[in-house]
Amino acid sequence: MKDLQDLKILVMGVGGLGCPASLALAQAGVGTLGLVDPDRVELSNLHRQILYNEENVGQLKVEAARERLTQLFPGLKTIIYPEVFSGSNAEKLFRSYDIIVDGLDRLEKKYVLNDWCVKFNKPFVHAGVVKFEGQVMPVIPSVTACLRCLLPKIPPPFALPTCREAGVLGSFSQAIGYLQAFETLKLARGSKELFLWKWDIQKREARAIRPARNTECEACSKGMIEKEMAVRCEV
Ligand SMILES: [Zn+2]
Fold it and tell me: Which terminus of the chain has a smaller tally of CB atoms within 10 A, N or C?
């Protein structure tokens, strides 16, 4: 088990989830954070993306996030990747990291991340939030259930709304991002107490579930189907 200082974590998407998650991971003492995001800071991001302020509008998110994080934590090493995530750069991005944090905003992109993490046997922590519902799920490929064990098929492109389209409370998005960081640290420390957390703040429900692996899962039980690996996915 690595010391936190030697741990390398890749944060995919530095938005409503990736901002609080990377802040909490840096605060906990993680030595290296990789930050992946091709987008620039927009005014409409600021209520939930806590690493940025109005002065950052127009700046690449990864650059603004790096500035803020290293200002707060001078010992933190950051590596930035202002690029679109797809199957073609997954191996290059994932190769040198211990754990991947899924802060991507579209479900179809989360499937691509899931499938490539399973293929490379890379632990990752899925999270998603839309309106009043949020979830977090750490995944150890071939040990715990993956995203495709729960929902086998990729939804049609743009079938589900993003935070931007459906709206989300900034404070709720941040809470899910901090929970994602907590589960990432548990994963790094070798915890076997790994759960799918589901929160619905409108119904006042919080559940921790341990989903079973699907023995028919096309990702983690049968081997990935090449045509699905090739699904185009751009941020
Ligand atoms: Zn699976």
Answer: N
Q: Can you list the domains of the chain with their CATH numbers?
A: 4-229 (3.40.50.720)
DSSP 7-61: -EEEEE--STTHHHHHHHHHHHT-SEEEEE---B--GGGTTT-TT--GGGTTSBH
To which residue do tokens 């127009």 refer? 58
pLDDT of amino acid 106: 84
- Distance in Å, CA 142 to ligand 1 centroid: 8
Mean pLDDT over the full length of the chain:
89
- Distance CA(121)–CA(117), nearest Å, equals 6
Ligand 1 center to 178 CA (angstroms): 25
Cα of 116 to ligand 1 centre, how many Å? 12
Query: How far does the centroid of ligand 1 lie from the alpha carbon of residue 210, in Å?
Result: 13
pLDDT tens figures, 71-108: 999 999 999 999 999 989 999 999 999 999 999 988 88
